[in-house]
Each structure stands twice: as structure tokens, then as C-alpha cells.
UniProtKB/TrEMBL annotation, chain A:
A Pfam entry, by short name: 2Fe-2S_thioredx
An MF annotation (GO) of this entry: iron-sulfur cluster binding
Lineage start: Bacteria, Pseudomonadati, Pseudomonadota, Alphaproteobacteria, Sphingomonadales
Natural source organism: Parasphingopyxis lamellibrachiae
Domain of life of the source: Bacteria
Protein name: Formate dehydrogenase gamma subunit
UniProtKB/TrEMBL annotation, chain B:
Annotated Gene3D superfamilies: 3.10.20.600, 6.10.250.1450, NADH-ubiquinone oxidoreductase 51kDa subunit (3.40.50.11540), NADH-ubiquinone oxidoreductase 51kDa subunit, iron-sulphur binding domain (1.20.1440.230)
Protein name per its UniProtKB record: Formate dehydrogenase beta subunit
Gene Ontology molecular functions: 4 iron, 4 sulfur cluster binding; FMN binding; metal ion binding; NADH dehydrogenase (ubiquinone) activity
SUPFAM superfamilies: Nqo1 FMN-binding domain-like, Nqo1 middle domain-like, Nqo1C-terminal domain-like
Domain NADH-ubiquinone oxidoreductase 51kDa subunit iron-sulphur binding: 400-445
Family listed: Belongs to the complex I 51 kDa subunit family.
Keyword line: 4Fe-4S, Iron, Iron-sulfur, Metal-binding
InterPro entries membership: NADH-UbQ_OxRdtase_51kDa_CS, Nuo51_FMN-bd, Nuo51_FMN-bd_sf, Nuop51_4Fe4S-bd, Nuop51_4Fe4S-bd_sf
Record's keyword annotation contains Iron: yes
Names of required cofactors: FMN
Amino acid sequence: MTTARLDEIITAHSIREAPLMPILNEVQAEFGCIDEEAKRQIAKALNLTRTEVHGIVSFYHDYRETNAELPIIKLCRAEACQSRGSEALAAKAETMANGRASIEPVYCLGLCSVGPNAMIGESVHARLDEPGLEALIREL
Amino acid sequence: MRIAISDDALAIACGADKLAEAFARAAPDAEIVRTSSWGMQWLEPLVDINGMGFGPATPGDVAAILDGGSDKAIGKIEDHPFIAKQQRLTFARAGKTQPLSLEDYTETGGWVALKKAYEIGPEATIGMVTESGLRGRGGAGFPAGIKWKTVAGAPGDQKYIVCNADEGDSGTFADRMLMEGDPYCLIEGMAIAGHAVGATKGYIYLRSEYPHAIRKMETAIKASAHLVSPFKLEVRVGAGAYVCGEETSLLNSLEGKRGEVRAKPPLPALEGLFGKPTVVNNVLTLAAVPNVLSEGAKAYADYGIGRSRGTMPVQLAGNIKQGGLYEIAFGITLGELVEEIGGGTESGRPIKAVQVGGPLGAYFPPSMFHLPFDYEAFTEAGGLIGHGGIVVFDDTADMLNQAHFAMEFCAVESCGKCTPCRIGAVRGQETLERIRAGGRGAGACEALPQMHNAKSSERSLEDEVVLLTDLCETMKFGSLCALGGFTPYPVMSALTHWPEDFGLEPAS
Ligand SMILES: Cc1cc2nc3c(=O)[nH]c(=O)nc-3n(C[C@H](O)[C@H](O)[C@H](O)COP(=O)(O)O)c2cc1C
Ligand code: SF4
Ligand code: FES
């Protein structure tokens, strides 16, 4: 994580009202995590304590403190997908991924009549069954 | 030839982009447009060729569709019973217009309502919203006009309109469809609200799980800035916390803080964003306003029953044959929605339960399908209509599992501010696990001489059920917000209607 790039992100948002979340969102998207150094630098720039920034980063599910090692498949585990078989699929997903992807839960993607659903980055995938998930893992 | 395919995220997830490419290759002379979705989701991707529908279509169907010999033909889309029987006011443009086309929006009655609001002035605008009977579509059902009036009357140099687009409830997608399919409608609704209460700035708090909606809203805001000026709009993206849909948690998040719930009072209407008077309304509430202004308050209020006026964009989801968006006047029964319109389960098995209103909503058995879709009727029946999502489960569902999930979800998403929710949800999961095990033996810890008040004998299944019921009472009455306060709905409704799944005698 380069300090210069981080400064750019902070500066770009600092004219907005309450710039912290937009900054954190962009740092997370660009660097894949918000690490200790980033927390300190953001805290300093916004005149917050490192503890305050840490408290916020650790509150939200989207923020990571370390980089993910594998590509992430977010598999929806909420009720509507459960009713369409997401739990059986989820039980096998880890084995199917076999070290090529990390399977994480997400609670609802707003595609609730065509589940089981998954999201990879910003792309969404519906009507998943085992072959469908296999194909997603293969294409990663 | 005009070939329309939706660019709604659900259609895309079902393969709409690849299908559109296949049509572009096979019919180079045709005009291929990307429109909003009709909301017949079981048919997505749905192809609309001069008004005739084909779906669910794959690239393999393209040749047959163009030849006119496809078995995916559903006839004229507007005549399909799923569409023809709806009363689409908020979703009047669904399936018909290109979401980001200002031309389409203007041609279909766009901006008429905003002009009218400027003409009649703030007071009369609020009057119309009040008369229409429009209530908040985010869950609590609070009258929109009264909220606006409070904000309009509150002293403040700066006021805000905040649109709650956090739509975290499982089984709901109407906010997403509206933002992706008709973004200018939401913008117009927010501009009207701004004019009515004297707010010059609006925020749309949009969940990060909706990247397509984020992009469309941001583009639409830029494209229409000159039309709503001096009102300014900005999208703020969430970071994956369900509780940030609760309005005060949302405001904290917007302010760049932990999304912890605030105690009320003060009401956000008086001290909201940055301590200023703030309207917080759901996407569907704000998007219903242009219709109310352009067609009249009475026309809107003529739909519905009792104190539930107007229409509700109902979302049919889960294990249902014909899932999608169904906008209809309040008063339609649960059974009509699920069985007649939805066609029962997709698996073909009998319906066991439907959950209405998201993860905090109750589970209802088919014996309660006579319930009319109405705020008060659902409250009386021990549930809520919430944001209007209905999730269908077939007879393979295990209601103890569903109750356990409700507690698990509450524990994962709790903001941690109050004890009944933060601790209760964890204890709830443990209690349900012991219920699954049929009770528990005497605990070593409880048997210690220091533990004067603890029960040292074993606990039966019935004892555990009493504990669970007691815990749910505590959560219901002791929680600061509805996350902890309403989690007992799915849990207790599962226990009440399906005791056999908990190892008890079936309900008589
Ligand atoms: C845990 C929790 C989650 C909520 N999630 C949402 C949501 O995603 N969208 C929404 O509009 N309202 C949600 N609400 C309701 C809001 O607190 C608030 O009542 C609503 O935004 C007010 O707008 P309305 O009057 O237009 O419905 C939630 C409430 C709770 C307790
Ligand atoms: S009920 Fe739960 S989410 Fe709501 S304020 Fe209490 S701890 Fe936070
Ligand atoms: S429950 Fe899985 S997409 Fe909504």
C-alpha cells in the first residue's frame, strides 16, 4: 500500500461531508484491505485517533484488515436462497473450491427468486447448482 | 425490429448480457435496447420483440425466436396475467423504458410532479402526501406526510433528505429494481421532498451488494443535476452491515461512524444527519411521491384498505414458481399472492411456510393464507409486512433450523449496543441447539456449591422451550431497535406453528 496513493485518495474525498466511509470504501476496493498503516495515515489526515478508525473498520463486514489470499466467491446464505437449496450447495462449496477460491457468506444480493446466488467482485450469478458453481470456480 | 432485453442485475445474473450479444450477432439490423425489467423473474432473461415476449431465453434460443418458432414464446407481454392484473403506479415504467434515458423518462410523464410541487408550494405538497395516505415502505409504515411536516416545521439552517436504499431483507429487491430501472423517478421524489421540507441536499445510502444500482444512480444523478437544481444529490455506499438499514444506524454510518443505533428521542426528523432536521425515507416511499403529485392524492388513496392506502410493490421470492415484482393495492390476501399469482412452489412440493417481511418477519403456515396484505392485519397476526418481501418454503424446510438461523443472523448483524440483542441472540442459538438435542444433562458448573441459584438438575426439552420463550420476551421488550426486538417473530412463529419440528406435540 503506497503512502502517496493513499494520500491521493484521502485528498480526493476530503472536500466531502463526512469523508471517512468513502475513503475506506475506496481503500478497500483498491488495496483489498485496510491495514494498520492505512488506519494510522487516515486517522492522522482526518484528525481522528487510530482507535476510532480501527473501531469503524472492524464494525463493517466489507472491510478486511489483511489481504485475501484467494479470489472470493460470496455465496448467498439468506432465507430466500436457503429455500432454494443454498445450504446444500454451501456444504459442498468449500470442497469444490479445493484451495482455488475462498467461499464466504453474503446475506442477500436482491436476486431472491432465482437463487442460489453468488457474487464475485461486482459480477452476479444466479440459478446456481453444483455444475454452475464448478464452472464459476473454473473460470476464476 | 425492436428487441428489448433488460439490464437489471437479476436479468444479467441469469445471462441477459450474453443473450443481448447473441441477438446483436444474429440480427445486425435490429435495434437492440436495454430496458428495465418487467419483473417476471422466472422468465428472465426475457426478450421483448415488438411487445411479444420470449423467456427464459438462452443464446441457443435466438435462432428459433427470430424465426418465430420458439417454444419460449409467452405471447404479448402486457397481456400476461402476471402483468395485466397488477396495479403499477410506482413501477409504471417497468419493462418499458431505458433506465438512463432522460428522453424516455420525460416522455412518460417524468418531471410533471416536480413542476407541480414548485407550483403549489411546500405546504400544499406536504398536504397532498398526507392525504394520499402514503406510509413508509421501509418497514415501520410511518405516515410520510407527518414525517415531512415535522421536518418542514423544525428550525434549522440546513436540512437533509436521506434515502434509505440499504434493502438488506432477504426476499426483497424492489428498491434495487426501482433504482436500476427507473432512477429518475427516485431522484424526482427526493427533489420533491427537498422542496417540501426546505432541504437542499440529499443522500442515497446504497448497500455495497448492489453495484449495478450504484452505477446507475450515480450516472442518473449527474445527468439530471440541472433538472433538480438547487437540490444536490449524492450516493453513499454502505459496507455490508444489515443494521445500517435502521435509520439512526444509517445516519451514524453516513457521518462516518460505527453503524450503532441511536436512542430515540431525538427523532431524526428533528436531529438527524449531523444533528440537522432530516427526512429518512425508503426508496419506495420516495418513488411513490411523483405519482401522488401528478395523479392526485385521492387517486392514490383510492387504492388499498383500512389505513393501508395505495399500492405495495410485493416481492415474490424463494421457492416459488412465478417469482418477481407484483405491485398491487393493499388488501390482496397472502394466499392469492403465493398460490394464484406465484403458482405455488417451484419444487412442486406443498408449501410449508412463508416468511413475510424479511429476516425479522414471522413465518406463516398455509392455514393463515386468508390474511390480507395490510399493516394492521399482519401486526395483529403476530407478524409484519415490512418491506413487502414474501419468501416461500416447501415441506422440506425444518423450522427449527429457520428459527436458529434467525438468531444466528441477529448475532452476526447486531450492532452491539444493547444486551438483549448482543447477548440474547447468542444465547438463543445455544438454546435452540439444546432443543434440537432434546434438552441437556446436569451441568458441571451449575452443580458447584457456589452456584446457589442455578438449577443443578438436567433440563428437559420443555424446560428449554420455556427458556427460549422467556428469552424472546426479553429481546422483544428490552431491545433498543427492531433487530433484537423483532428477531423473536420468526423464532416464536416457527415454534408456535410447527412445534413438531422442535420435538414437541403437533399444534392442534
Ligand atoms: C434492523 C433494521 C433494518 C432496517 N433496514 C431497512 C432497510 O434496509 N431499508 C429501509 O428503508 N428501512 C429499513 N429499516 C427501517 C428504517 O429504520 C426506517 O423505518 C425507514 O427507513 C423509514 O423510512 P420509511 O418511513 O419511508 O419506511 C430497518 C429497520 C431496522 C430495525
Ligand atoms: S437491538 Fe441489536 S442492533 Fe438494535 S440497538 Fe440493540 S444491539 Fe443494536
Ligand atoms: S436471499 Fe439470496 S439473493 Fe436474496
